[in-house]
Design brief:
Blueprint lengths: L19 H15 L3 H5 L3 H11 L6 E5 L5 H8 L3 E6 L2 H14 L3 E5 L12 E7 L8 H11 E12 L4 H12 L15 H8 L3 E15 L2 H11 L1 H8 L3 H18 L2 E3 L2 E15 L1
Helix pairs in contact: 1-10, 3-4, 7-11, 9-10, 9-11
Amino acid sequence: MTSTTTGTTGTTGTTNSTTPSMDDLRTKQQAVWSSGDYNRIAALTVPVNEMVVAAAAVRPGERVLDIATGTGHAALAAARQGGDVTGIDYVPALLEIARDRAAAEHVEVEFTESAAEHLPFDDASFDVVVSAIGVMFAADHQAAADEIARVSRPGGRVALASWTAEGFVGGILGTVGRHVSPPPGAQPAVRWGDEAIVAGLLGDRVTDLASTTHVVPVRFADAAAFADLFLTYYGPTYSAAAKLDDAGRSALRADLVELASSSAVSTDGDAIHLEWQYRVVTATRA
């Protein structure tokens, strides 16, 4: 597996120092993603992970890094293609699930606890860097982009999948923000769903940057079933609800039900059909 170093800053990237406010923001966001039970939500996003690995065109023997791997879906997909895969995340409980899944599938993946802005790897360590709806939630967007560029070898490939602002999950995050203000300094995660913004973050360190949009089809029994699932298990909605009183939680739930009802593509018998839009950005390290 790919070797790691501890505390490396690299010679082509920024240092690992951050302001105290950014460290505080990262701690708060880590707590959000440690709440609820993201494994219940991650299961719905398997197509996103499969798509980003396909877009990266992982080949046998290539060194692959999956940033913010969560429960490991993209890392495992890359390993099935024969990649020499490392997955990082800053939520230990999610990494444990990822390790269990890798063991169950008898595939070898190295899972390491790390923030996206502090990758413990040397410069140019990886042939391919991917992230499926993960790095978009980094506290410091520019630092995370700098690390992606730093650990990618020249000629290496980058593939990033992110929810879009105009898509359904962008609507969920926007709804949460209207009920509970984001922490000071937080940037909208859906910025990564905009090709121009990702191009600006990566800058002239990459070439051939392009993007495509896709949807994940998801069905629930009804709009209320969607709202209750996300209020119970999805970190951003779970943690927001915990900060509200009973009236506030009821209002948040009502807005989530309305979002699902108004966004439904169709109803199929007793089910409501939603489509969650995401963007895959690909690039080549210069």
